[in-house]
Design a protein that fits this description.
The structure holds two protein chains of two kinds. By secondary structure, chain A is mainly beta. Chain A has no helices and eleven strands. Chain A has strands spanning 5-7, 10-13, 19-24, 31-37, 44-50, 53-56, 65-68, 75-79, 88-95, 105-106, 110-114. By secondary structure, chain B is mostly beta strands. Classes of the chains: A mainly beta, B mainly beta. Chain A binds chain B through residues 4, 31, 33, 41-45, 48, 55-56, 91, 93, 98-101, 103-109, and chain B through 30-32, 34, 41-46, 49, 51, 87, 91-103.
Chain lengths: 115, 110
């Protein structure tokens, strides 16, 4: 079974520029999550999708971050404009239906550095 | 969310069993206990989860105390590739997200 695919693996941009990350979840997984992991901390949820609908985006800084999952499969997370504090690893995860007894499976993330 | 307490770090000898404790004394009856690990430069990897009964899979065993206030993850034969940060995470029926704490940094030494 193929895992969660993310690209790019690394990205370096200057502050105020824009950037986009892509995620392809495990086949058949209806629930998709984006997490942010700042160096030295555990991952924190940004947004959760169930199919192509948003379940929770309460922790997403909506003035600069946006995410979509138009066809209910792959997803894109965008930052515009980027700030220095956005330097982090952006992790995508998926699970079958998002229930508490179903594990989430993570990709290896995109490491974003803001200069 | 239930709070967890894990030792910040542990050393383990290669080939020996590694027993990783987690205290979750405020866990509620419908919260599962999940264990993940994160190897350097990789995403978190699911290991195992349980509700009340002990669980075993190809990676590890999970022992949950009868009162469910604590659990132990057992890696039966640690290898150098098991060096990672291990997270114990309670997750209830209303918690679709995973709330990661600081975890335990496990170093397996040859």
């Amino acid at each position: 079974e193929a895992g969660v695919a993310q690209s790019p693996r690394y990205k370096i941009i200057e502050k105020r520029q824009s950037v986009a990350f892509w995620c392809n979840p495990i086949s058949g997984h209806a629930t998709l999550y984006w997490y942010q992991q700042i160096l030295g901390q555990g991952p924190k949820l940004l947004i959760q999708f169930q199919n192509n609908g948003v379940v929770d985006d309460s922790q997403l800084p909506k003035d600069r971050f946006s995410a979509e999952r138009l066809k209910g499969v792959d997803s894109t997370l965008k930052i515009q404009p980027a700030k220095l504090e956005d330097s982090a690893v952006y992790l995508c995860a998926s699970s079958l239906l998002g229930q508490s007894n179903q594990p989430q499976h993570f990709g290896d993330g995109t490491r974003l550095s803001i200069l | 969310d239930a709070k967890t307490t894990q030792p910040p770090s542990m050393d383990c000898a290669e080939g020996r069993a590694a027993n990783l404790p987690c205290n979750h004394s405020t866990i509620s009856g419908n919260e599962y206990v999940y264990w993940y690990r994160q190897i350097h430069s990789q995403g978190p990897q699911y290991i195992i989860h349980g509700l009340k009964n002990n669980e075993t899979n190809e990676m590890a065993s999970l022992i949950i105390t009868e009162d469910r206030k604590s659990s132990t993850l057992i890696l039966p034969h640690a290898t150098l590739r098991d060096t990672a940060v291990y997270y114990c995470i309670p997750r209830g029926s209303n918690d679709y997200k995973l709330s990661f704490g600081a975890g335990t940094t496990v170093t397996v030494r040859a």
